[in-house]
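# nightly structure sweep
# worker-07 picked up a monomer target from the shared queue
# config: single-sequence mode, recycle default, output format = structure tokens
# input follows
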Amino acid sequence: MDFGKQFKTKNDHNKKTMNVEKGYGHAQFFPCHLDIWVFLYLWLLEYPYWHYVKPFPMVKREEFGFKFSAFSALKEVPEPLQSLALKAKEAVKSSYSPYSHFAVGAAVLLANGEVVMGSNQENGAYPSGLCAERVALFYAGAAFPGIAVKAIAIAAQYEGKPTDEPVSPCGGCRQVMMETRRMGGAPIQLLMVGEEKIVLVEDVAFLLPLAFSNIDDALKGI
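# output follows
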């Protein structure tokens, strides 16, 4: 046996192993995989990687806003809204509000010219009370079924003194206004009366975007 040749072969193998571990042997392995690298390169040119990356979903953002009219005195308000505001002030007197001491009156103008008034009615079991706007609207619906509402005026007093700033309807009243608007098929003006400022909104729909609809309306979109 040629021990010198055996030692030389083993020594060469160790050097090759060391070279590979140190990174010197990459060049001798690259040519055998060259066809794979070329294939990958050409494939990426033909089908870029971003074709396979799912894009982030685009969020559509929408904004909502509306304009309203503001008056500093009741005499500036056009008719018939000025007269309707006086009716709302008159309705405050019939309020039953011994718990909150916050009296509210509402006057509703119907398409046939009739004016219906209502005031807030409280109860010792607080949820059992009802706001002035709903009292007036429900009364109008019961007394004049099928007649559209054209305008609503609201006025308020706290502990017997008229409020300086106008009072806006609560969420429940806004929902009832939207239902009334839907039944009438036409915009409803809303006049909010204060002693120092009066606000006129041309359509109650502006006060409740994305209003709740009944189940029949909701199913139409399915």
